[in-house]
Design a protein that fits this description.
It is a single chain. This protein has a single domain, classed as Spore Coat Polysaccharide Biosynthesis Protein SpsA, Chain A (Alpha-Beta Complex). By secondary structure, it is α/β, with parallel strands linked by helices. Helix 12 packs across helix 13 (348-390). It has a nine-stranded mixed beta sheet with strand order 1-4-3-2-5-8-7-9-6, sandwiched between helices. The protein is built from 18 helices and nine strands.
């Protein structure tokens, strides 16, 4: 493949870094150097410390009780999403025959953006997967976005021979070095009416672009994004991959459908989301400073009054088989959720005007509470361990009668409900091999809590630092190709 530098690179990078702020001031996670913000944190922490010194028991009881109530509402919210999804699947289904029946001349021009960094091993499998796409080559615009100093991946790209219309563009080094920065550069140079994103390890099913084109035609202009479902190849390798696979299945088969049915804000996944190009331009593309650019973009699109749908099509991905690699990836996701939540609440009145009180509730429950409660788990598990081993008086003081019974109810019913959802997920996707992992899911939450705590620290110390997820740990491309070719919206 031919490798090119980004034309007019300085201008393109400048637009990539500033476009979101220009279109919607205050909607970027870019660190803002002001004198007032640090003092707000200092004052807030100072007030909390003073209250703890004056009335430590009252503060502890208040915090633990509020946390228990928040847990209760969050569990109820997620259970209600699952109930909605089990009653009806809102995913837009386009059959194989319908997808193939569209005349090539009537298909829209499609841009496929693929940001990659430090991933020479997975490029051949990626290009092989894209070559299986049943889409006319003269209506495809494939852009592989590589960092200009990533010599290994650049060399691997040069060695690949393909019939796809691929442009390999080298994005100049700069900060922040993030996936959304590369995507923004690619968007400026894309030619398609529709745009999709694939990660370097992805294997989309061959008819996905045709299905998306037809689904957009049916949906009307209010639907500006379709999220395809993600699933894993090699998800049975160890207990971690089984947990991860179960979690993804719950996310894409139960939670996201439930959010769509509730007309709630839908946080996008980082790949296989398909967009109308004009909508991306309207919101300024991706925020290069946000490390979960997908979640942030989905919220900004919906704040404009547009809708996000689910496409009944599957992209196979590689799961994390290594715990440390998983923690790094999950820390980035949680940090990005916190960034998105923090940015949205800079202007609370505008947020309510855009989403309505119901939309704000869903946003708080699903985006804000996901990392927050994961962090709090460590605190409550620590208190439980101290009480069981020492019967410490201060722990008992934190849970006066009514607060104790509330906490026990939350612990029992909440944990049972989440385990039950995991078991239901294994049945929904017809994967009985995931049942044991579902029953052991409380152990998975320990990893989530560690990742969330790490995310909170990084939000302060390195908010826009992108911790790269290592891919190519399984290189099970043959399995992925078989699964993706067989998939038509049901990963089973």
């Amino acid at each position: 493949m031919r490798v090119e530098h980004v034309p007019d690179a300085d201008r393109q990078l400048g637009l990539a870094l500033t476009r979101v702020e220009q279109v919607n001031p205050g909607a970027t996670a870019r660190p803002i150097a002001t004198r007032s913000r640090p003092w707000r944190w200092v004052v807030g922490i100072g007030v909390l410390v003073a209250l703890v010194l004056v009335a430590p028991v009252a503060v502890a009881v208040t915090i633990t009780t509020l946390a228990s109530l928040l847990y209760t509402v969050t569990v109820w919210h997620r259970t209600s999403l699952v109930r909605r999804a089990l009653r009806h699947d809102p995913a837009m289904h386009v059959s194989d025959a319908e997808a193939r029946a569209i005349p090539d001349a009537e298909l829209p021009f499609y841009s496929v953006l693929i940001p990659a960094y430090g991933e020479p091993e997975v490029l051949p499998g990626l290009l092989a997967a894209l070559e299986r796409l049943e889409y006319p080559r003269d209506r495809l615009d494939v852009i592989l976005l590589l960092e200009a100093d990533d010599d290994a991946t650049i060399d691997a790209a040069r060695r690949i021979d393909t019939d796809l219309p691929v442009r390999v563009l080298l994005v100049p080094p700069g900060e922040p070095r993030t996936k959304p920065r590369a995507l923004d550069v690619g968007l400026r140079l894309a030619h398609g009416d529709l745009v999709t994103i694939y990660d370097a390890e992805d294997h989309p099913e061959p008819l996905q672009l045709r299905r998306a084109a037809e689904a957009f035609r049916r949906a009307g202009d209010q639907v500006v994004c379709l999220q395809a479902r993600l699933f894993f190849y090699g998800g049975h390798r160890n207990l971690l991959t089984r947990w991860f696979t179960t979690e993804y299945a719950t996310w894409f088969h139960l939670y996201l459908p439930g959010l769509v049915l509730a007309d709630a804000t839908v946080p996008l996944g980082g790949t296989s989301n398909h967009f109308r190009r004009w909508a991306l331009d309207e919101v300024g593309g991706w925020d290069p400073w946000n490390v979960t650019e997908d979640c942030d973009l989905g919220i900004r699109l919906q704040r404009r009054g547009w809708r996000i749908g689910i496409l009944d099509s599957v992209t196979m991905e590689e799961p994390n088989t290594d715990v440390l690699n998983w923690v790094k990836q999950r820390s980035r996701w949680y940090k990005g959720y916190l960034q998105t939540f923090q940015v949205a609440w800079r202007h609370p009145r505008t947020l309510v005007d855009d989403l309505g009180w119901r939309g704000v509730f869903h946003f708080v429950m699903f985006v804000g509470c996901t990392p927050l409660l994961a962090v709090m788990n460590l605190w409550f598990w620590g208190l439980a361990l101290i009480w069981l081993t020492t019967r410490a008086a201060f722990v008992q003081a934190m849970y006066p009668g009514w607060a104790y019974y509330l906490a026990v109810a939350v612990w029992v019913l909440g944990n049972l409900s989440v385990v039950y959802v995991s078991v239901v997920t294994a049945r929904v996707v017809r994967r009985p091999d995931l049942l044991v992992a579902a029953l052991l899911s409380p152990l998975y939450w320990v990893l989530m809590s560690i990742a969330a705590l790490r995310a909170v620290v990084q939000l302060v110390t390195a908010p826009s630092h992108w911790e790269k997820t290592t891919h190519g740990l399984t290189l099970d491309a043959a399995t992925a190709a078989t699964a993706a070719t067989a998939a038509t919206g049901d990963p089973a």
